[in-house]
């Protein structure tokens, strides 16, 4: 910007060209222009240009050769990997089949033991034992109840409404909350995808898998419960039901509650219980040290017979 004298002796303002206009008019930095001009005036020797092209060509050939070798090795190893993967899948299916057969055999043996036990016991004792088994989950039960169904949302999110934008998978905490809410609503027996819940049952996650009593369950998840007729209404009024409805509206996750007649819930497997044992008897204290022996109340001194103090 330069200043000139205008009328009246005051300096007149003269503005430089607009910055963007100058930038589009001369986009190249002056240093690059000077370097290009020097290169044009003093071009490199022809042998240097040819050698640079030769080196580039050799590098490209080597890269192509290495890529071809890597691709060939990958394709040669692919059948072995596919075979190993197929073998693992077959082993998993075989183990699952064996597990199902053993579970069915265990159910048959449990029923046979129950029949033999009922025959050996009196009628009232056997009925009481069956009631205890039904209450603890060790016996199969039938009755009317409620089924809560949860399913993962579709993988694609709606670009307009945003449905499916949140976490679309059912979490193990969702199953925990639904099961606890059903118990609170008066459920007498609960099962998740056929896995009966007991007082020692666990609902956990391992990676993306959900485990119920260390057995994997897959979606859609159905939490079935047997209980009184008011159980559905009480469950729908619970906090977890309201939360799951809100999550379903925001993420597209499927959540539904329906009444079901004549549900049959299987018995749970026999639990592996661990019992606490009292520690060994402490070593007797020396007879001379009477102050160290505890009194009847477990304190260092005997309580006052008259009930003194508080």
Task: Note down, in words, how this protein is organized.
With 310 residues, this protein is of the alpha+beta class. It has helices at 19-25, 30-41, 46-120, 123-136, 172-184, 231-236, 239-251; strands spanning 2-5, 11-14, 141-151, 189-192, 195-196, 203-206, 209-212, 215-217, 221-226, 254-265. Among the domains are: 14-91; 141-265, Alpha-Beta Plaits (2-Layer Sandwich), CATH 3.30.70.1880. Helices cover 45% and strands 17% of the residues. The strands form 3 sheets. A 5-stranded antiparallel β-sheet has the order 5-4-9-3-10. A 3-stranded antiparallel β-sheet has the order 6-7-8, covered by helices on one side. The protein is elongated and about 115 Å long. The chain crosses the membrane at residues 51-71. Residues 286-310 have a biased composition (Low complexity).
Question: Main sheet, how many strands, which sense, barrel?
Answer: 5 strands, antiparallel
Distance between the termini: 97 Å
Integer average pLDDT: 77
Assign the CATH class of the domain at 141-265: Alpha Beta
How many extended strands?
A: 10
Structural class: alpha+beta
- What gyration radius follows from the Cα positions, in whole Å? 40 Å
> Which fold does the CATH topology of the domain at 141-265 refer to?
Alpha-Beta Plaits
Shape: elongated
Q: What is the helical fraction, as a range of percent?
A: 40-55%
Could you list the spans in which at least 5 consecutive residues all have pLDDT below 50? Answer: 288-310
CATH 2nd-level architecture of the domain at 141-265:
2-Layer Sandwich
- CATH homologous superfamily of the domain at 141-265, by name? Protein of unknown function DUF881
The helix tally amounts to: 7
Taken in chain order, the helices and strands follow as EEHHHHEHEEEEEEHHE
């Amino acid at each position: 910007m330069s200043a000139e004298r205008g009328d009246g002796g005051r300096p007149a303002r003269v503005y430089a060209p607009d910055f963007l206009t100058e930038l589009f008019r001369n986009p190249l930095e002056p240093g690059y222009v000077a370097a290009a001009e020097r290169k044009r005036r003093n071009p490199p020797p022809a042998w240097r240009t040819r050698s640079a092209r030769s080196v580039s060509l050799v590098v490209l050939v080597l890269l192509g050769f290495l890529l071809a070798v890597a691709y060939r090795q990958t394709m040669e190893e692919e059948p072995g990997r596919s075979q190993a993967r197929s073998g693992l899948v077959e082993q998993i299916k075989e183990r699952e089949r064996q597990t199902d057969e053993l579970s069915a055999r265990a159910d048959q043996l449990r029923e046979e033991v129950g029949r033999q036990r009922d025959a050996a016991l009196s009628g009232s004792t056997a009925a009481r034992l069956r009631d205890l088994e039904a209450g603890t989950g060790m016996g199969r039960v039938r009755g009317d109840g409620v089924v809560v169904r949860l399913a993962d949302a579709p993988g694609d999110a709606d670009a307009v409404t945003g449905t499916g934008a949140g976490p679309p998978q059912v979490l193990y905490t969702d199953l925990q909350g639904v099961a606890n809410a059903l118990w609170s609503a008066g459920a007498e027996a609960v099962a998740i995808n056929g896995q009966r819940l007991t007082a020692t049952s666990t609902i956990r996650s391992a990676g993306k898998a959900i485990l119920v009593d260390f057995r994997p369950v897959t979606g859609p998840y159905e939490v079935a419960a047997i209980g009184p007729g008011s159980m559905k209404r009480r469950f729908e009024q619970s906090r977890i039901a309201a939360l799951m409805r809100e999550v379903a509206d925001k993420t597209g996750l499927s959540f539904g509650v329906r009444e079901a007649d004549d549900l049959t819930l299987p018995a749970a497997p026999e639990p592996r219980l661990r019992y606490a044992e009292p520690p060994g008897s402490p070593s007797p204290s020396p007879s001379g040290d009477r102050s160290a022996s505890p009194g009847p109340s477990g304190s260092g001194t005997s309580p006052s017979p008259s009930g003194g103090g508080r």
